[in-house]
Design goal:
Layout (H helix, E strand, L loop, with lengths): L1 H6 L3 H19 L3 E6 L2 E6 H28 L1
Antiparallel strand pairs: 1-2
Keywords: Cell membrane, Membrane, Transmembrane, Transmembrane helix
Organism: Actinomarinicola tropica
Pfam families: LapA_dom (PF06305)
Amino acid sequence: MSEERSRSVSPTVVIGAILAIALAVFVFQNSHEVPVEVFFWEFEGPLWLVLLVTILVALVMIELIGSLWRARRRR
């Protein structure tokens, strides 16, 4: 039994590999520069990085709003 287990591939490893490949494809397909304007800042960056930063900012904002809502609800 231990011999079979050592030769089998974990589903977590398979899912991780699929996600890594999908991420690599996404980055290579979205590597062209795009202009970004936020208030008075203007810069250019690769599309994949702009999307990643946007997603991270959105996640942080969702977490902050959720924690404020939970704190207010406790009162």
